[in-house]
Amino acid sequence: MTCQGWSAARIALALYPFGAGAAAVNVFFASLIFSWVGGPVASAGWSLGLGCLIGVPATWYFARHIRLLMDIADAGAEQTGA
Q: What dihedral do alpha carbons 66, 68, 72, 74 form, nearest 10°?
């Protein structure tokens, strides 16, 4: 399999804003659930900050998965002659 197209790092950079935003929303909702047992509710700033930190590895692993799927699709296209 040859790696054609975007690298995993380039895919991760393109998808990072979405990954960080999704992680921030998840941090906020997790803090809301945690508040049911007496925990504090995270502010918007804390949610965004933690989302930016958690979004880095999450986006990196997702980008590697997308790159793997692209490589598999390219290999299948080469086998079928498309």
A: 70
DSSP secondary-structure letter at 4? -
Domain boundaries, the chain: 8-80
Give the pLDDT band of residue 78 (cuts 50, 70, 90). confident
Long-range contacts (CB closer than 8 Å, 24 or more residues apart) made by 57-62: 58/19, 58/22, 58/23, 59/12, 59/15, 59/16, 59/18, 59/19, 59/20, 60/8, 60/12, 62/12, 62/15, 62/19
pTM, whole model, 2 decimals?
Answer: 0.82
